[in-house]
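Record pair follows.
FIRST:
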Amino acid sequence: MRVMGVDPGLTRCGVGVVEGAPGRRLHLVHVSVVRTDPDDDVALRLLGIETGIEALVDELRPDAVAVERVFSQHNVRTVMGTAQAAGVAMLVAARRGLPVALHTPSEAKAAVTGSGRADKAQVTRMVTRLLSLDEAPRPADAADALALAICHVWRGGARQRLAAAQRSRIEEAARVERARLAARSRGGTVK
């Protein structure tokens, strides 16, 4: 499975793509940061983020996109920009029919370090180790994006299987109900 992790931000939007499967070795496909000028209008900055993520999705062809779930912060302005950038990443994925998963920062930290309270340095060290990188991804936004992608590879696969099983059960229940209604309209009975 190839997963693109997105650590949303208006000034620096981390993007990391990994390939792997639960219980198997992970491989780095790509890591970068989409940057925008803080002096630009917010609409132009969001357009820049969209353009950057679109180009990476089109080039790298992920199977899924994992975006950091925005949580409440004391600085409302910061959380708004982060939420807007997250929305852009989700929109880009949705336009291409890619599944989108939201993971909290503590989920991503726990996935790569074993502790949801790990600091940025610990996350960066573990991402570097897990992907067998010669040097740590910089800035921290890039390492965080890779941590989100790793988290989704390891945890998201199970979520996707559960969601697929649930969709199957729903589709089967809908099929049975349609058959029951069709039989009823023809004057027959169905148990």
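SECOND:
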Amino acid sequence: METTQPAGGISGNVLFYSSPEPLNREQHAKLALVHKDKPYSFALNGTAVPLAVTEFAPAALSYPVIFAGDDRVPLAVMGLNTGENLFIQADGAFEAGAYIPAYIRRYPFVLANDESQDRLIVCIDRGSDLLAEGGQTPLFDDKGEPTEYTQNCIKFCDDFEVERRRTDSFVQLLKDNDLFELKKAVFTPMDQNGQPGEPQTVAEYFGVSEEKLNALPADKIKELQTSGALAQIYAHLVSLIGWDRLIALATLRQQQQVANGALN
């Protein structure tokens, strides 16, 4: 991937990236990564984060994995309210034991479209507080060449793009087999006496219909199994149990905020 030439025009808005710039040895020669024990503050408002299909299984242990929009983009749901991430603390700490999506791990690097030359180029978020001239791990060495750290980050972005395309193919397969349906995540609150109240819809999203899946002909099921898609479908379906955990986390955080308000 190109890292040194300025782009004619970078297109697209990318979640978390406030000031993306093409990585350039002249402009960014003195930039370095700032080491932080809790570096995830940039994702505090990431309610839902894009996932690659190969991440479904590990992500399913932590989050509901859903599909959104006309493109049926796979997302890891990390909060119930817009601008809320229940797995990241205000100090930038990530919930212990929770899977960290690759979309978050690649930050502050990203691939972006260079419209003038119809290609993808490596960019960094110049607005990130993880990059500074006084940082610990340089992006370029004394000869102006990308350091091992930068090379690894570029490879990570390249691999991420490969997985993104694989994910597009997986989603198209689900579309071709007409497996999507609109689903709802429902929460039933308890009153002061411990009795269930009126069920409340907390989210609407697209997911795989088990009924449609089970109705597929045997040869179609075999195709899904052989391609590995069936395992990813079941990881998605199992992940939906995670709505209960998400609701419990949201309730706990709300109770903590009320308690802190009372103390103040």
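COMMENT: The CA atoms of residues 32 and 138 lie 4 Å apart.
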